[in-house]
Amino acid sequence: MAKKKVPPLNPSNTDIPLYEQELTVRPEHEWMLLALNEFTLEKLKHIYFSLTGIKITKPLNKAFYCKLIAYILSFDTQEQFDSLFSNLPLLVQDAISLTAFTDYSKIADLEKKHGVVLLTKQKNQYYYEALEFDHTLRMDLFVFSNERFLAFYKIFRIVFSRWLPKPPGYFLSTSEPPLGEIWSNAEDLQDSLPLLFTAVPPFIPRNETYSIIKKGFNKTDLKKLRAQTGLKAFPLGTSFGVDPINLVVRVVLALYGTIPKRPADIDEWIRTLIQRFLFEDLDFLKQMKRTDYLCGGLLEHLVLTDHISVVSSHNVPNNFVRPPCREQLKEILTAMMHSGKWFEVETIRASLEAQGIPFTFISESYESWNLTVKGSTLIKGTDTFEDRYSDIFKVAGPVRDSLLRLPLLQAYFYLLAVFGIVEIAEKVPAKPLTRNGKQYQISPYDALTHARITDYGLWCLGASKTKPKRTVEQFEAIADQELLLITFRGKSLERRLYLEQIGERMGDERFRVSEASFIRDCTKKSEIESRIQQFKKLINPQPSPRWEDLFSTVLARSGLFSNPYDCYLFTLPSDPRIKEVFTQDIRLRSLTIRAEGNRLVIYRNDYKRFLKILSEYGFTSPKDIF
Predict the structure, then answer these.
(1) Residue 173 above 90 pLDDT?
(2) Among 49, 108, 248, 355, which lies 20 to 30 A Cα-Cα from 13?
(3) Rounded to an integer, what distance in angstroms lies between the CA atom of residue 519 and that of residue 531?
(4) Distance between CA atoms of 596 and 580, rounded to whole angstroms?
């Protein structure tokens, strides 16, 4: 016996069609009225038919169709939802089940299973032929992309996903510990970050703050900063363009507008930064004229998604609103901190997709129209996407997840790792993007695979009141009174880095210093003076005469040959008559310098005058020397 179909809701009078009754949409469901109002009247008619299988012949206005559809979708119980769902065609049920918890599903899979063709060429209102759904199949709850993929309209995904059984991976789950090397900065940041704040300012040219935020330092400057700070590189990420020094400096400049002076308590400073980044209101940035252009999602765009470009003539708008992806990051971290275990970033991404969370730093409409990634083909799973005309992918449609959601997640965890909030694991990333005939990874952050919140991170995030204890450094640095030797024992990153700058290692505990090693990599007298002050601060506040002699020697020699003169050098012939000209004419004697080997030196600035005087004695003047 055929199953009896039950109407989705029981109207007050079942003898009167629903569309002829006086309907009321409760306040908690009025959001659907606003969403439905975005559709045209014609589209609303198709949506109503898709939900009910009924075609209304009576003319109804758009507002009533919105109210009618919202009323049908205002489920109060699971039974009401099941009633509507069970009355839908099997094709539509399968499409809903496939698409309610994913951004896109494949049209070919549905067509093959049900033996139908979903898309047909139909004339639109301007009499142009275009692909549209076969309306008789009742598929107008969906939108198609690239003729290959099916997606829910957002309103229907929200409604149906609430009542359908949640698939595996919908809720965030832990993973097994990752294989390979683990990168953590929680134990080292107390030394390395204060050193970074001390070292960085000379590397930021005046009025170049925005440029550093956008591009970071070049490889030469990074090498110098690493030698001065000891901030270790990522095992793999650095090879693909992610450097912890750049991450720290770019984000701090974006949030504060300047590099702070060396904090007295680096742990409290980091905790304040994390709280500001994740929890505080953005009003404080409105008062900072140097950084007000970085409010909202511009920090994410410039620093964490710099693989993404903005369409020419469009700028990411500054609306002083905390980007939604940062709010969602807080929820992810909250879920992670309660387990104390590892999480795979791909699992987090899949959970966001299943829950329909876009994870974006800007409005979805702006994103889909204005954000792009260069490339001609992109491989995602078993599917290949191509752009045959512009070699540019818009951050929209089936490729959006690969271009934005996952890279932004990975970038956030790299950033949190530098500040010791999480520890991370990496692996060599795939290269799914083709550009100019070569294969590339999508973003510099693709190597990151796993993350776990540290005890230090729990304290910074406010989940723990107990700050992890650090081992007190035990060290001694002894400068020999007579020889330029320094003995160093114990642990002090700042002192070890300083000794590696000024000396040559001799075994595990001893460094030999010379005039050459002390000034190594110095280009200015001020840098040498700074090293002398560091010696008195870190090694010996009262150096012996031997060390003072070293300091005075390198200072006296600094810059001695840094301002050379531009001169000409000539060899005089042995003719005594020519020599007589240069010895007797006082003007020539004042312009020339006698040099060994019967030669004359003339400053470049005096050369024209020199030639003019020589012409009085019958010497020709070369015209091509200038």
Answers:
(1) yes
(2) 49
(3) 8
(4) 17
